[in-house]
Design a protein that fits this description.
39% of the residues lie in helices and 17% in strands. With 161 residues, the protein is of the alpha+beta class. It has a single domain, classed as Alpha-Beta Plaits (2-Layer Sandwich), CATH 3.30.70. It has a 5-stranded antiparallel β-sheet with strand order 4-1-3-2-5. The longest helix has 20 residues.
Amino acid sequence: MNHIPRQSTHRERHAMREFLADTHFTHFITLALNDPMASVGRARRLLRDWDARMNRKLLGKRWHRKPDERMNWIAFLETPWDNPHWHLLVQLLDGQEAAYEETRGEEFFWCAERIWTELKPAGTLVAKDIDDPWVKNYVTKQLVDPLTWENFVIFREFFEL
């Protein structure tokens, strides 16, 4: 795909960084497709399916009826024209991670990775607790590119209410 970056989105990237600075996130997750031929649409479908499976694991069969209890996140698509991967800032609510591990019997990060590789066998997942504010700048570094700007996703986009 030919890609021509737009130079006028520095203002939008700055605004996004200000928004993120005011929001508390608990985890930083990278979902790599490891597929340079994957389309933006395919990357979005994989992200949607990962979110659905994670929330089902967290909340049970009727997870879609519990929008206020779902995992909150914002995802930024990086290098969509070459090697697409998602950087997510995740906000688990108070007690959500502990409840998840207690009721499901597996560690949150391990489960997140297992679900991702079930969806995308060649894919990889890297997850960390957020302990450094640099991560909010890191995930937004490509927002000056219009394809990246147009494809960031907030978890509510996948709600089927």
